[in-house]
Amino acid sequence: MDSETADRMMAAPWFYEFDLPDGRRTGTYLPEAVRGIHSTRLSMLLDTLDRHRDVVPAAPSVLDLACHEGWFAHHLAARGARVLGLDASGEHIERARLMAQVYGHSDVCFERRDVTRIEPHELGVFDVVLVLGLLYHVENPVGLLRIAHAHTRGVCVLETQVAPGLTGTVDWGSHLYPKAIVGSFAVIDETDQIAEGNPEANIVPISLVPSVETLVLVMQLVGFQRVEVLTPPPGAYEQLAHGKRVMVAGWVDGS
Ligand SMILES: C[S@@+](CC[C@H](N)C(=O)[O-])C[C@H]1O[C@@H](n2cnc3c(N)ncnc32)[C@H](O)[C@@H]1O
Fold first, then answer.
1. Residue 6 domain-assigned (yes or no)
2. Are 210 and 185 in contact (CB under 8 A)?
């Protein structure tokens, strides 16, 4: 990338406020009221990794599914992690790569990919798999959870918005055979977001949002042995504090 392009990109507003080595901070297009979301999620992520040093090495390998501009990837790289970040947006990937140059991070790699189309074992296994802010932007969340599980050696840290849960029964072939609803997904139509060019949206219109109980159940059903709903810290971003978003850790066998 030539320096003029790099300067133009640095001057543009970003999704994240990156603290730059020269003391500057990138401007953000995120509304003031929403900015705390990133620091809350980062502190919950780092706290989880630090609490499980027995499973997560000090310098873990990390797969960041939907890495955006690589803010989480770069924070982990600064602590010694080797990170592969994937995102559907070519612009986000360019920005993540520019930040790698700015920070001098050589153990990070960013590629443009639709992560819903990764084969389950395509990329090998990683100590840590991140699925942050993505699950509620895909039309096949169960498939995404299978992909995440297949790539996890230690822990998958997932963060998502959640929907109210449906309970009750469904007549299973006849009213004589009711079957219990054990989970539910809400349907969200992201057509308007895609038309507006929202850089944080799904890449197809249909998004399915699980309830928290459904998320935990489905993570267990795709193979995570233990699923822990993480407790937000004092002063957490409102959605996490009020249970509208959750961060969970899914542990695989042996961890
Ligand atoms: C709300 S942002 C979350 C970004 C980041 N993980 C975080 O939590 O801050 C959603 C991201 O998902 C990406 N995305 C949406 N659908 C995707 C897909 N099928 N494959 C890869 N990335 C996707 C978008 O480009 C965007 O970067």
1. no
2. yes
